[in-house]
């Protein structure tokens, strides 16, 4: 480890290893994603879904900003390590505030989020001003966009719960819009393309590890919800269904998606913009799908034989559909054609939702196994198409 100022990474290796401190940092999200899942379980309505989405968007942006920072600077230098540890603490504060973020802990959530972004932005500006001035200039633009969204975050934190939802939705929309328009500023224009360059192998590996963490959160939720009733067949089958669903999600992403995404970004003329589109934005949909599926697993484990209600049907069918859609869009962004297996799978899940709500006699256990059957068909369909091509 270096005690000197953080050095810009040269990215000379074909496959760059993710540093242990980065893996340590990512552990915060096992806790964070579990908190989001539990919040959605306890607030299973449209307003609760919007609020859970806002918190997931904020957490993902928090993680994404530090992933890019560790891609640009040596994560084994003490300045970067110190920053990562500081931001970890802020992430724990954000995560602990999630259950009451729309109640009495809004200020804690906002402080954790804003402090992370102001610290990382200032760090990059100072550290890159000599070695990569174009990167420092881009982060100055990023800071301007952050200043624009900050009043909205603060206004939400001091508003009522319902008003807070809309203040924060507007704030997170501004934060996500910035990179899409290359941090455009009137008169000054957009950030230079050279400022976005990244190491494809590093950012690809970080994202793959995050997907594993998200899948691990599904296993954690299922294990924590199961009450040890091994003599009750429905609950055992619900636990097995949750595990099978997690395995199928792993197969759908890691069979072909992960490696082909890396190859595409590596060969792109502008690695930074390709990584922004594919990793920063589209992978969020995959993570969101995993979180919603975990909520469906928890509901199914708690009441496997009860008549299914509309909210539970939305979660069970919608989570799987969202995950498949995320994979479809990621693959399309890296040059795949529109995969019929994925499109048919999404349509089948919509049909399954309509069927469960129309019949009213299906149970969460049956619905979860039917959703798994659709996911299995998508995995097999993709494998067949891959071998033919």
The coarse silhouette is globular
Count the helices. How many?
A: 14
The low-confidence parts are none
User: How much is the radius of gyration in Å?
Assistant: 21 Å
Describe this structure in words.
- By secondary structure, the chain is mainly alpha-helical.
- Helices cover 76% and strands 0% of the residues.
- The protein has helices at 20-26, 28-42, 46-72, 78-97, 106-128, 133-157, 161-180, 200-225, 233-254, 257-267, 271-302, 310-333, 340-359, 364-388.
Key words describing this protein structure:
mainly alpha; 389 residues
Give the topology.
Elements (H helix, E strand, L loop, with lengths): L19 H7 L1 H15 L3 H27 L5 H20 L8 H23 L4 H25 L3 H20 L19 H26 L7 H22 L2 H11 L3 H32 L7 H24 L6 H20 L4 H25 L1
Helix pairs in contact: 2-3, 2-4, 2-8, 2-11, 3-4, 3-5, 3-7, 4-5, 5-6, 6-7, 8-9, 8-10, 8-11, 9-11, 9-14, 10-11, 11-12, 12-13, 12-14, 13-14
Overview in brief:
By secondary structure, this protein is mainly α.
């Amino acid at each position: 480890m270096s005690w000197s100022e953080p050095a810009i990474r040269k990215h000379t290796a074909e496959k760059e290893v993710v540093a242990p401190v980065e893996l340590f940092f990512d552990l915060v999200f096992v806790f964070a994603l579990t908190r989001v899942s539990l919040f959605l379980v306890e607030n299973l309505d449209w307003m609760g879904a919007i609020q859970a989405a806002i918190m997931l968007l904020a957490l993902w942006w928090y993680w994404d900003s530090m992933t890019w920072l560790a891609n640009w600077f040596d994560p084994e230098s003490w300045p970067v390590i110190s920053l990562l540890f500081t931001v970890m603490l802020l992430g724990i504060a954000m995560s602990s505030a999630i259950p009451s973020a729309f109640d009495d802990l809004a200020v804690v959530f906002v402080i954790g989020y804003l402090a992370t972004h102001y610290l990382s932005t200032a760090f990059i500006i100072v550290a890159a001003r000599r070695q990569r001035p174009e990167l420092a200039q881009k982060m100055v633009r990023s800071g301007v966009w952050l200043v624009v969204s900050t009043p909205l975050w603060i206004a939400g934190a001091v508003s009522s719960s319902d008003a807070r939802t809309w203040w924060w939705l507007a704030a997170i929309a501004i934060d996500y819009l910035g990179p899409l328009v290359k941090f455009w500023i009137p008169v000054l224009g957009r950030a230079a393309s050279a400022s976005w360059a990244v190491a494809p192998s590093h950012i690809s590996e970080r994202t793959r590890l995050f997907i594993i963490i998200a899948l691990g959160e599904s296993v954690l939720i299922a294990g924590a919800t199961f009450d040890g009733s091994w003599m009750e067949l429905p609950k055992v089958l619900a636990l097995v269904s949750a595990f099978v669903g997690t395995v199928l999600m792993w197969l759908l992403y890691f069979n072909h998606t992960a490696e082909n995404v890396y190859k595409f970004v590596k060969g792109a003329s502008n690695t930074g913009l390709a990584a922004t589109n594919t990793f920063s934005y589209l992978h969020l949909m995959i993570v969101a799908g995993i979180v919603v599926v975990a909520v469906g697993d928890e509901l199914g484990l708690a009441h496997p034989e009860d008549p299914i209600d509309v909210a539970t049907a939305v979660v069970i069918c919608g989570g799987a559909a969202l995950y498949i859609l995320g994979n479809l869009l990621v693959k399309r962004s890296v040059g795949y054609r529109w995969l019929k297996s994925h499109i048919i799978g999404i349509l089948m899940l919509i049909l399954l939702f309509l069927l469960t709500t129309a019949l009213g006699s299906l149970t969460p256990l049956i619905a979860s196994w039917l959703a798994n059957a659709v996911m299995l068909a998508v995995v097999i369909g993709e494998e067949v198409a891959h071998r033919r091509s």
